[in-house]
TrEMBL record:
Substrate binds at residues 171, 175, 209, 228, 332. Catalyzes the oxidation of glucose 6-phosphate to 6-phosphogluconolactone. It comes from Frateuria terrea. It is an enzyme of class 1 (oxidoreductase). Residues 9-180 form the Glucose-6-phosphate dehydrogenase NAD-binding domain. It catalyses: D-glucose 6-phosphate + NADP(+) = 6-phospho-D-glucono-1,5-lactone + NADPH + H(+). This is Glucose-6-phosphate 1-dehydrogenase. The lineage of its organism: Bacteria, Pseudomonadati, Pseudomonadota, Gammaproteobacteria, Lysobacterales. GO terms for molecular function: glucose-6-phosphate dehydrogenase activity; NADP binding. The gene is zwf. The active site is at 233 (proton acceptor). GO terms for cellular component: cytosol.
Length: 482
């Protein structure tokens, strides 16, 4: 759907997220004709660039990403740049004047900065009158570093922008497969009757990355994998799998159901943290045959207890999910880039087959988020041909790219335009963010009290062996059939 011309202001406009995700997302929407040419994208950061310098930086990024040069040249005039330090007064008058050049435009202020700057930036936006009804603010995760700091930020931002103007982004909610989970669960009669502790043995959620720290050491080393990935993306995925059917797709209908799941998570704290969680940190290793340095070698001072890997076992204490473990794992510098949700069903109650038929396996529904988004349903069938009844485990396999012949849009493409349209369904409501921190805080506290260093794992592996033990102790294994 087309939108009216708008202004997107990116604070942190030269940062990793802006260059890797936000600007390419805008470019792709522009190429598809969804970003009107009168729109403006204003990069703001401390670097002393001008419009030309910024355009040339973005030109290189888009060209590296394979953008056609005539399209890139058509896109670049939308870009503006203003040097600004969120903590200093100078430059804000000029900034406000630049934004005010287009009073009719919807204004999206995207705070792709450290959360410590959110309040300063919002206060200044407010004091320059830039928080009117056509303004929206987008907050990148993680919001804060624990519940208390998150609440301070949320309240301070809330004094400048109303809840309907505030978009707390979790880009995992914009991924096609995650939205497809809604279609799959609630658009088919097949799954929902089985979607409970009576039929599901366990759920696995894996988000594995091959990337290391890159340019983000300053942020990442203070955050770690639990804050960076679990508090937001992983818990949001868990909510989408576990929530009760919402009555509609109205923003609050969906968010109310997700919130109930967060409230029902069983606490993980001092008493059980050692059994239920594993933290790891990568050492040097090889990924796709290429040597990569260890985490500590990527840091300036070479010291850190920050985890780059987390595995944990969560449980949802409610009627639907009692006793069904949700195993979560995420890490940097793992063997391959892979994100998936695996719903493992219980085995049949009784086998009618001889032992010679081979073992009966569980049905598994695998939702692949990346790379190659798609859905696989593992079934047991008879091996074709004579030679008796031998059982085989095979997938019904659907790749979205093959089935629909289109490149899947990046999550940010969808979400940025949702902000312009004012649709908050795929954004986190304040109480969701708080509930997620409420569950995460005791884990952080228990880790802090235990004071143990993260377990080492080689870059290019699947994390510390303790993560394998976490699930194998329960007689289960991480999915390897993707
Ligand atoms: C971000 C995290 O939110 O998500 C990064 O801060 C991580 O550390 C990224 O690399 C992963 O996103 P995606 O879409 O590449 O899986």
């Amino acid at each position: 759907l087309p939108v009216d011309p708008f202004d997107l202001v990116i604070f942190g406009g030269t940062g990793d997220l802006a260059l890797r995700k936000l600007l390419p997302a805008m470019f792709h929407r522009f190429v598809d004709g969804q970003v009107p040419a009168a729109s403006r994208i204003i990069g703001v950061a401390r670097e002393g660039l001008d419009d030309a310098g910024y355009r040339s930086l973005v030109r290189d990024v888009l060209a590296d990403g394979g953008g056609a040069s005539d399209r890139i040249e058509a896109f670049l005039p939308l870009l503006r740049y203003l040097p600004l330090d969120a903590r200093k007064d100078e430059g804000w008058e000029a900034f406000a004047a630049l934004v005010d050049e287009q009073p009719e435009h919807i204004r999206v202020f995207y705070l792709s900065t450290s959360p410590e700057l959110f309040v300063d930036i919002c206060n200044r936006l407010g004091s320059h009158g830039l928080n009117g009804p056509n303004s929206r603010v987008v907050l990148e995760k993680p919001i804060g570093r624990d519940l208390a700091s998150a609440m301070c930020i949320i309240e301070a931002v809330g004094r400048v922008f109303s809840e309907t103007q505030t978009f707390r982004i979790d880009h995992y909610l914009g991924k096609e497969t995650v939205q497809n989970l809604l279609a799959l669960r609630f658009g088919n009669a097949l799954f929902e009757p089985l979607w409970n502790a009576g039929h599901i043995d366990h759920v696995q959620i894996t988000v594995a990355e091959t990337l290391g720290l890159g340019r983000r050491a300053g942020y990442y080393d203070r955050a770690g994998a639990l804050r960076d990935m679990v508090q937001n993306h992983m818990l949001q995925l868990l909510c989408m799998v576990a929530m009760e059917p919402p009555a509609s797709l109205a923003p609050d209908a969906v968010r109310d159901e997700k919130l109930k799941v967060l409230h029902a998570l069983k606490p993980v704290d001092m008493r059980n943290v050692a059994q239920l969680t594993v933290r790891g940190q990568y050492k040097a290793g090889a990924i796709d045959g290429e040597r990569v340095p260890g985490y500590l070698e990527e840091l300036d001072d070479g010291h850190s207890n920050t985890e780059t890997f987390v595995a944990l076992k969560a449980e949802i204490a409610n009627w639907r999910w009692a006793g069904v473990p949700f195993y979560l794992r995420t890490g940097k510098r793992l063997a391959t880039r892979l994100s998936e949700i695996v719903v493992a069903f219980k085995s049949v109650p009784h086998s009618i087959f001889d032992a010679s038929a081979g073992p009966l396996a569980h049905n598994r529904l695998v939702l692949r988020l990346q790379p190659d988004e798609g859905v696989k349903l593992w079934l047991t069938i008879k091996h074709p041909g004579p030679g008796g009844l031998r059982l085989r485990h095979v997938p019904l396999d659907m790749s979205f790219a093959e089935a629909f012949g289109v490149q899947q849009p990046d999550a940010y493409e969808r979400l940025l335009l949702d902000v312009v349209r004012g649709n908050p369904t795929l954004f986190m409501r304040r109480d969701e963010v708080e509930a997620a921190w409420r569950w995460i805080d005791p884990i952080l506290a228990a880790w802090g009290a235990a004071g143990e260093p993260p377990r080492p794992y080689a870059a290019g592996s699947w994390g510390p062996s303790a993560a394998v033990a976490l699930i194998e102790r329960d007689g289960r294994t991480w999915n390897e059939d993707s």
